[in-house]
Amino acid sequence: MPYARERAGIADAQLGLLLLCLGCGSMVMMPLAGWVVSRIGCRRTIFLAAGAVALSLAFLASVSSFAALVAFLLLFGAAVGTADVTMNIQGVIVERACGRSMMSGFHGLFSLGCILSAASLSALLWLGASPLQAVCGLLLAGALVLAIHGNALLPYGEGGASSPFIRPSPEVLLLGGLCFIAFLVEGALLDWSAVFLVTARDVDKAQAGLGYAFFSLTMAAGRLCGDRIVNRLGECSVLVAGSLLAIAGMALAVLLPHWYFALLGFVLVGAGISNMVPVFCTLAGRQRRMPVGMAIAAMTGIGYLGILLGPALIGGVAHLANLSLALAGSAGLLLIVVVCAPWMTRRRTA
């Protein structure tokens, strides 16, 4: 984005609009992705989404027109949203066929991919590559992975509805709401942890990114270990204990004055919420009131609003009160997960 901003000569307001386009593209396609998968299967949908990602990223790394940036960010968001839903649908199918928890590991590798790609892109730019060259390097690596493993993707998807638009069941709506809360907490730390460290804990701006870095690494580690934890403790215990751990971590970050405690608190928040969304995906795949693909799409779309709207809501609360109260309030919403977890994790077939 800094390179695109420089090429196009855009102001802060235009940059905000560009970032909104990314989320809007995802939100438009997420509810439709389940229907697409039911029609052409997981494999073809992933290939189409990957092609759209490659096309949009290549142009985003080179175009200088604001209108072109808007168009290709919408395409990129739509492709990423489609791939996100499709991966979760395939994950649910595979997990159910194997008869054990596997979703946390899938999401853990997703988190690891985010970390590795960001580090690789930064390294290529640091070595002198242009944005287009750096992006093409990542795209070639992704194409190689798909060429080697793409045939292992499922050629089918879960049976879907005849229409791409179907009203979510109350159970799926509740799962979407709980997913919204988990994503809201994640979005709060994504956009506000650095601001909190600088303004409330007097951390130097050059070190302010440590908060989200520690949070992200803990999230990835927690997910990579999550399947063993879920299989051993059960879904309800993971949701309840994770929520309480995240609440305690945020309280530690905002109540104790030293920035070391804030970093420790962000680590606890990452550990607490790391396996929530994977468990919600498993539960959406288990319910029988909606086709699985449509349920995953609806839940993911509702949950994704937490990342889009959450930071703005926290900014509003911070403006009316203070940032510490806003962050604590976001974590306090996890008490809803604590209350709902016992009912949501009962094994139902109807």
What is the structure about, briefly put?
The chain has 350 residues and is mostly helical.
User: Which consecutive residue ranges, at least 5 long each, have pLDDT under 50?
Assistant: none
**CATH H-level superfamily of the largest domain:** MFS general substrate transporter like domains
Order of helices and strands: HHHHHHHHHHHHHH
Alpha-carbon Rg, integer: 20 Å
Anisotropy-based shape: globular
Portion of residues in beta strands equals under 5%
What is the subunit arrangement here? single chain
**Count of extended strands:** 0
Number of domains: 2
Structural class, by secondary structure, is: mainly alpha
What's the average pLDDT?
91
CATH class of the largest domain: Mainly Alpha
CATH architecture of the largest domain: Up-down Bundle
Continuous helix count? 14
Distance between the termini: 47 Å
Describe the protein's architecture and organization.
The protein is mainly α and 350 residues long. The protein contains 14 helices and no strands. The protein folds into 2 domains: 2-152; 170-344, MFS general substrate transporter like domains (Growth Hormone, Chain: A). The chain is 81% helix and 0% strand.
For the structure shown, list the relevant keywords.
2 domains, 350 residues, 14 helices, Growth Hormone, Chain: A, 0% strand
Give the arrangement of secondary structure elements.
Blueprint lengths: L1 H7 L3 H49 L5 H33 L4 H24 L4 H19 L20 H32 L8 H15 L1 H8 L1 H21 L3 H15 L2 H11 L5 H29 L2 H10 L1 H11 L6
Helix pairs in contact: 2-3, 2-5, 2-12, 3-11, 3-12, 4-5, 4-7, 4-11, 6-7, 6-10, 6-11, 6-12, 6-13, 6-14, 7-10, 8-9, 9-10, 9-13, 9-14, 11-12, 12-13
